[in-house]
């Protein structure tokens, strides 16, 4: 009994060392004899504890050499829900594959930039500054709208783009997805119809399924949604809401023209349609494109976004800009459902990083790097018979047609077995008309991604 | 002479920044070194200029942190939606008053401990450690369940309490409120009835209103819910869900007895009732009380909680422990609605702070301090004719009967005009039977709270 307790204590001691990074992956553990002395237990207790940690996969034994911390960091270890790999290729498929597989998996299907593209130095400065900051920011709840210093930065940025609003028209939330969720909760009633683009960001569909909303999609053209079909859909289906990205549309990278935006807003007004404009990728634009929210002045357009693509996805901070009465309702809703918005620790890091002198240059650097890598990746894909639907003005996506009616979902399933996450077309297509398309994230095309794609192209279709 | 002129120039530069709002109240001034470089003067000139501005009251020095523009911090300034102060005393009233008023407002009505009660040193260590941590934690999305190292700590803690579950039965969320929200989304259908205690935590009601659920309440006794009425409610209303705190019930501080827990679970089983056990205050218990989740083994009880009461409310991290199939469904739901759970930055801070050798002692210290302050506060209230309904075993709440049928909502409104947030009884009572009760947070009874309460007691009832 006492023996069991001592073993547990030794295991705990090792786990603490791992937790505090006193021991890191690949490092050798203290020798059995030495650690027995340190812990004041018998060597056999240490042997027992190490053996159990080996069984858990926390450490590994190297015969003749000793015990070593296992290779994969704890957050990526073997406790992941493995069956998820074999689930249906539905709108949640790529999300779960991208989030829940480890660093041994390559992810050209995911929706973010690699860590070494992000403003690491500025964030680390922000963390050190926060470590010396006021007590209250570290431990108190934040205000219900989110800190005004960050909302003021957003308001200034919107003003530069021609949208003059007060910081009180901005509510901070924990992500762009949660922003859309709050708006849907406030506006959608059971049975409502929601209009989306075809193709569109797969999580719009996953979210709308939660609401059991009727999803109607309109083909997206390189200039924005097909307006004739858009008008038809308004007349036929009376949608309550339209969700879109006008700048750097996900997955196509298309950008709405000024004329499309203007006409679309006139249609929306005539039919009492509310629009959510998801600006998540806007910071990656080389220059400003027409924005529905700016044209409309936030009358029937609600602008949402986040800092996940150019600052950090880890800090979990998004925003909603909308009419004051809607913002007031959403603020209450966020208190009721989450007792407030993003972490004040997070918003402080975002504010400090955005205010850091290096941030603007950092974003410009990302844009330049993406321009180059988009071109190279496109050329290499074209050589394999994979054709970009258009060459986007910015961002990290290439939406591509596969040759010879190859089925993207089948290729993605096969790729997953080789530890490569791909994003097959139909997860973006409510009408399921994109089976022959694939979305590639040009910043994540590391080996063996190219090899897997090349092999799939040489394999004759099933 | 030249030195004096340069000092004046630096002061002028700061004043210009204030005039143009390039610097706003509460904002941190440039560091001495950096500003010296910018202005092309010596650091001592900057020090001199800053000191003089401090003397003028234009800026203030925060030792160890830097210099800040004086006046109200930005998050607390006049841009706050003032009308909120006059809104109805509904279940959201105390939340909004507590979150959105500044530090000049005293908040015995709020649900948290003051910042100087929290593990500031350990959190600052965690932040410094994170500033040296891996890139991916700072900028990547986290896994969909949340990091396994933190889930493992929770699983071990549950095991110590007699609830043996795997870390895969635990989903991390952004708060206890959001945990309940996710469960409600998964389980509730329109028109469903939900059972709560009377009184109960006001945000349960705010949240259930979002679902347009029918709320039925059962009187709470010092031993748990009144079982006769509980049984009656099950038969009459067929509720889908019961939400409660069995340890340190909010607002009463009551604790369910083992017998009540056992009988309640038998009733739940007979009627197919699911239970959410909100364990948010459990860490403040002096010793372990009977827990529904432990008795039941997570068959029909879902355990939720957070770290907001003893670690930090700012980091926004909660958890759900439940049956595997429910956890799988909730995980997908959280990806669809928030693209994942809490910030990896936050979970890393929580994990490091919980693993810090000082944490257990910190919590013990809070408990001891609360025991003393509960006793003192109770005595002082009793002397005013305000009677605690029971003396809680732990926690920071005293649920008190006011003398002579005084109306708690009226007192709370009057207190708000004097910058004191109180928590009047009826916001906790679905049946509106607690007009003569008030919940006091003993850790937040700073002046002028006592003065306001004393004055209200001397005022004859309207």
TrEMBL record, chains A, B:
Residues 4-72 form the HTH gntR-type domain. InterPro entries: Aminotransferase_I/II_large, HTH_trans_reg/aminotransferase, PyrdxlP-dep_Trfase, PyrdxlP-dep_Trfase_major, PyrdxlP-dep_Trfase_small, Tscrpt_reg_HTH_GntR, WH-like_DNA-bd_sf, WH_DNA-bd_sf. The keyword Ribosomal protein does not apply. The keyword Transcription applies. One of its GO terms (molecular function) is DNA binding. Keywords: Aminotransferase, DNA-binding, Plasmid, Pyridoxal phosphate, Transcription, Transcription regulation, Transferase. It comes from the Bacteria. In the C-terminal section; belongs to the class-I pyridoxal-phosphate-dependent aminotransferase family. PANTHER family: HTH-TYPE TRANSCRIPTIONAL REGULATORY PROTEIN GABR, TRANSCRIPTIONAL REGULATORY PROTEIN. This is PLP-dependent aminotransferase family protein. It comes from Gemmobacter fulvus.
């Amino acid at each position: 009994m006492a023996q069991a307790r001592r073993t547990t204590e030794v295991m705990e001691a090792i786990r603490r060392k791992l937790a505090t990074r006193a021991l890191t992956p690949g490092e050798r553990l203290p020798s059995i004899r030495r650690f027995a002395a340190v812990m004041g237990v018998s060597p056999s207790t240490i042997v027992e504890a190490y053996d159990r940690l080996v069984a858990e996969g926390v450490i590994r034994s190297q015969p003749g050499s000793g015990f070593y911390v296992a290779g994969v960091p704890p957050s990526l270890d073997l406790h992941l829900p493995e069956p998820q790999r074999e689930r249906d290729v539905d709108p949640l498929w790529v999300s779960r594959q991208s989030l829940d597989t480890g660093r041994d998996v390559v992810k050209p299907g995911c929706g973010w930039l690699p860590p070494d593209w992000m403003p690491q130095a500025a964030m680390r400065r922000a963390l050190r500054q926060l470590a010396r900051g006021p007590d209250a920011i570290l431990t108190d709840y934040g205000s219900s709208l989110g800190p005004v210093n960050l909302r003021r930065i957003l308001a200034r940025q919107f003003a530069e783009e021609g949208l003059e609003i007060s910081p009180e028209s901005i509510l901070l939330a924990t992500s762009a997805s949660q922003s859309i969720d709050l708006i849907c909760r406030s506006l959608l009633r059971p049975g409502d119809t929601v209009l989306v683009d075809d193709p569109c960001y797969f999580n719009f569909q996953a979210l709308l399924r939660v609401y059991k909303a009727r999803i109607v999609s309109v083909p997206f053209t390189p200039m924005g949604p097909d307006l004739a079909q858009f008008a038809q859909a308004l007349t036929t289906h009376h949608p309550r809401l339209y969700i879109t990205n006008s700048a750097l549309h996900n997955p196509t990278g298309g950008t709405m023209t000024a004329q499309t935006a203007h006409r679309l807003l006139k249609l929306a007004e005539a039919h009492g349609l509310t629009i959510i404009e998801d600006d998540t990728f806007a910071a990656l634009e080389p220059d400003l494109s027409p924005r529905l929210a700016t044209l409309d002045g936030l009358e029937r357009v609600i602008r949402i976004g986040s800092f996940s693509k150019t600052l950090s996805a880890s800090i979990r901070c998004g925003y909603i800009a909308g009419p004051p009465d809607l913002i007031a309702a959403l603020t209450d809703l966020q208190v009721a459902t989450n007792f407030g918005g993003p972490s004040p620790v997070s918003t402080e890091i975002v504010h400090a990083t955005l205010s850091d002198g290096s941030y603007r240059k950092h974003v410009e650097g990302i844009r330049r790097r993406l321009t180059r890598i988009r071109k190279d990746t496109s050329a290499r894909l074209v050589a394999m018979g994979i054709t970009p639907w258009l060459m986007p003005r910015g961002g990290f996506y290439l939406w591509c047609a596969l040759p010879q009616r190859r089925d993207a979902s089948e290729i993605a399933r096969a790729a997953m077995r080789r530890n490569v996450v791909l994003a097959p077309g139909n997860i973006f297509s409510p009408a399921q008309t994109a089976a022959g398309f694939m979305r590639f994230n040009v910043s994540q095309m590391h080996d063996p991604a190219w090899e897997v794609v090349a092999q799939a192209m040489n394999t004759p279709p099933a």
